[in-house]
Amino acid sequence: xxxxxxxxxxxxxxxxxxxxxxxxxxxxxxxxxxxxxxxxxxxxxxxxxxxxxxxxxxxxxxxxxxxxxxxxxxxxxxxxxxxxxxxxxxxxxxxxxxxxxxxxxxxxxxxxxxxxxxxxxxxxxxxxxxxxxxxxxxxxxxxxxxxxxxxxxxxxxxxxxxxxxxxxxxxxxxxxxxxxxxxxxxxxxxxxxxxxxxxxxxxxxxxxxxxxxxxxxxxxxxxxxxxxxxxxxxxxxxxxxxxxxxxxxxxxxxxxxxxxxxxxxxxxxxxxxxxxxxxxxxxxxxxxxxxxxxxxx
Length: 297
What we know:
Blueprint: E1 2-4, E2 7-17, E3 29-35, E4 39-46, E5 52-60, H1 65-78, E6 89-94, E7 99-103, H2 112-117, E8 126-132, E9 137-143, H3 145-154, E10 160-164, H4 165-180, E11 187-193, E12 196-203, E13 206-214, H5 218-231, E14 241-245, H6 252-258, E15 264-266, H7 281-286
Parallel strand pairs: 3-6, 6-10, 11-14, 14-15
Antiparallel strand pairs: 1-2, 2-5, 3-4, 4-5, 7-9, 8-9, 11-12, 12-13
Helix pairs in contact: 5-6
């Protein structure tokens, strides 16, 4: 935990470092930074071996956007390796509700902000996008302009990618299902966070559906899964639903869902990243989003 005369700006939740992490070879490493309104998560992956070498999570203490940037600045001053010039690439992953997913064939970069106006007010935010070429889909999203400028300045000597959490999940799930073997039968993948769940539906032909929902209890969580399946005419007694994130077999959410969904399974360790003993099995599942950020290039 760090404090200043203005009060503490961030709290360290946990840090995990692989013994192979070496600051002398940053040119072999990909750095991912995840940011939402509350947390900053850091992940370092060896671009050659795909091994996760560093993972950190911090809780920001702030009351407005300006203070959030101040908290991040303090974190970077205390953790100078983050702003080092030697990283192979860096990816900034933004998590918010200001996004939309559209077919790639309909996307025009010059009007990207207009797509967002149909789903959410963006105000003075900057608009960015990432195209999933293999899936023929583009994620358009808004990001706080001063925050974007700060990161562009910080990583002006490094190739910086800016993406949305939706892209992390879509790309990570796509790689996972490709490794398992995609079929014509749709797979429903549910990534669960505290207070948010993300429902992705994919089949051999590509991405069928993605959306994020806020929930308050197990009943609401289950409702969103079932309503998506019903809308897409998927059978809860036939189609597989794969769970990943903050859920396990003893959790109330799983017990509730298992009463209504017959083929309920858990995602195994993603094939696109490797882990040493320092990283628990729970971590490998609960942070699928940032652990997939390096795939979005």
